[in-house]
Write a structure and sequence with these properties.
7-stranded antiparallel sheet, alpha+beta, 23% strand, 472 residues, 12 helices, 5-stranded antiparallel sheet
């Protein structure tokens, strides 16, 4: 039996397989696991980490939560959960255990519970908002700020007429015992993740390659950013590099022994006491290091356990990296593409579980899911969306910038189309045309900011969402 006939003959079984994973594939932690999909306010949708382009002596880490926010979704807008603990963790010695932990907690105040309005009876900030939130930040056991302002959501031209100024109130200085500890922002922003989820969820289709799909359909080959016009809740911190390193020193050399750190983010909830109140131990319910791991690598039956785990325990999932289901799916739904290895994928274990040798490797053995960042690699003047695959060493998988196209990067990695740079320098496979696989969405729907917190202004409730998409 020829390969093509074998693939087509297995088509029905394979399509059932893809259907069974449904919305878990390639969504960058938007509703990536069964339990967290029911608890969106603490669902960590994306994590970014990069050397700050306008302040290269600092690093910026951005953790987003509560995806798919329709901007007009009032009157109870998508606030931070005051009963949850949000956090960012940093491993600076390569053992898969957090050495630095930033925790973020929120309080909510309702001035007039007899009103249904979020805003009160006039524009913000001239009229005090009816619902306000404040933020407290800890670094390990040290308080860096309490009662910090959280800006109101972008409701509309009458309620929030000068939203840029409102958002600016959410940029707060952090101060520790030794002085300057950076700055923080927590508030609503445009969702910076860009991807054609609609086509990907439709049996693994990629619009630019739909003619090669097992079930080809006529239509455009341009991707559709299905995250367009949605907002998220963003926690962003910009801190001196010395706050993250193992020796508490600045990093200016990419080869320094303290240059590389591993980062992950998530959220925890308190377990219920015998009286039915949330006063028990904190229980981790969400985590995210590298994008797409819980979606593409971890199977449905292990996703909730993975969300509750720690990087140091990720070796139990090693077989999922070595034998990725997505590779078998690509072989099935794209029968004319070169065969992808479905076993022995030490390349994925290396790059995603240990780091790129000579660039951001934290551990030469074992397997930890961490977003690894070499603090000594300076920002790129003209970033390439394909990051390291295109020879841009300041991009994913060395950290992750807002403009890095992680969908295209990871599809090509799984499909063994690593591109010329990694093929030449690391002897990784470079199958063609697998090295040009893409979803057709190459950039975000809104321009990023040049300064902290970098994430674009959130879509406005009055003019955003489906209203904007209708061209009105």
């Amino acid at each position: 039996m020829t390969r093509t006939n074998r693939i087509v003959g297995l088509g029905a079984v394979a399509l059932l397989t893809i259907t069974s994973i449904g919305g878990t594939a390639l969504a960058s932690s938007h509703r990536e696991a069964p339990l967290i999909a029911r608890d969106p306010s603490v669902d960590n949708t994306d994590l970014y980490a990069f050397v700050s382009p306008d302040a290269p002596d600092t690093a910026t880490i951005i953790a987003n939560y509560s995806g798919f926010q329709e901007p007009s979704g009032g009157p109870n807008y998508f606030s931070w959960d005051p009963t949850a603990l949000y956090w960012i963790k940093v491993d600076n010695n390569g053992d898969g255990v957090a050495d630095v932990t930033y925790t973020f907690t929120f309080t909510t105040d309702v001035a007039n519970p007899d009103s249904f309005l979020y805003s009160g009876y006039g524009p913000i900030p001239g009229t005090p908002a009816n619902v306000t939130q404040t933020l407290s930040v800890m670094r390990n056991d040290e308080s860096l700020g309490t009662g910090l302002a959280v800006p109101a959501p972008n409701i509309g031209p009458r309620t929030t007429p000068k939203y840029g100024a409102i958002a600016a109130t959410g940029v707060n200085a952090l101060t520790g015992a030794s002085g300057d500890a950076g700055k923080v922002f927590a508030g609503q922003r445009d969702d910076p993740f860009f991807a054609d989820l609609g086509s990907i969820f439709d049996l693994g289709a990629l619009r630019p390659f739909q003619s090669a799909h097992l079930l080809p359909k006529p239509g455009t080959t341009n991707g559709v950013d299905t995250l367009s016009a949605y907002n998220v809740n963003t926690i962003a911190i910009q801190v001196p590099k010395s706050q993250l390193t193992v020796d508490s020193k600045d990093v200016t050399d990419a080869t320094a022994t303290d240059a590389v750190v591993g980062i992950w983010a998530g959220a925890s909830r308190q377990s219920m006491s015998a009286t039915g109140t949330g006063t028990g131990d904190w229980v981790q319910v969400s985590r995210l290091g590298n994008p797409l791991i819980n979606e593409v690598i971890i199977p449905l039956g292990q996703k909730d356990a993975w969300n509750a785990g720690e990087p140091k325990d990720d070796a139990q999932y090693e077989s999922r990296y070595l034998n990725p289901e997505l590779a078998a799916i690509i072989n099935t739904v794209y029968p004319t593409l070169p065969d992808i290895a479905t076993t022995g994928r030490t390349d994925l274990e290396l790059i995603l579980g240990q780091g790129v040798p000579g660039l951001n490797q934290t551990n030469a053995t074992g397997l930890f899911d961490e977003l690894r960042l070499n603090l000594g690699v300076p920002p790129t003047a003209k970033p390439n969306r394909l990051g390291v695959l295109a020879g841009d060493l300041a991009g994913f998988p060395n950290g992750r910038r807002l403009g890095d196209d992680v969908i295209d990067i990871e599809i090509r990695a799984v499909a063994q189309g690593y591109g010329d740079f990694l093929a030449k320098n690391f002897q990784l496979p470079n199958l063609s045309p697998n090295n040009v696989l893409a979803d057709g969405v190459n950039k975000n729907d809104a321009a990023f900011l040049d300064t902290f917190p970098y994430v674009a202004t959130p879509w406005q409730g009055y003019k955003g969402g489906t209203y904007r998409l209708q061209g009105k």
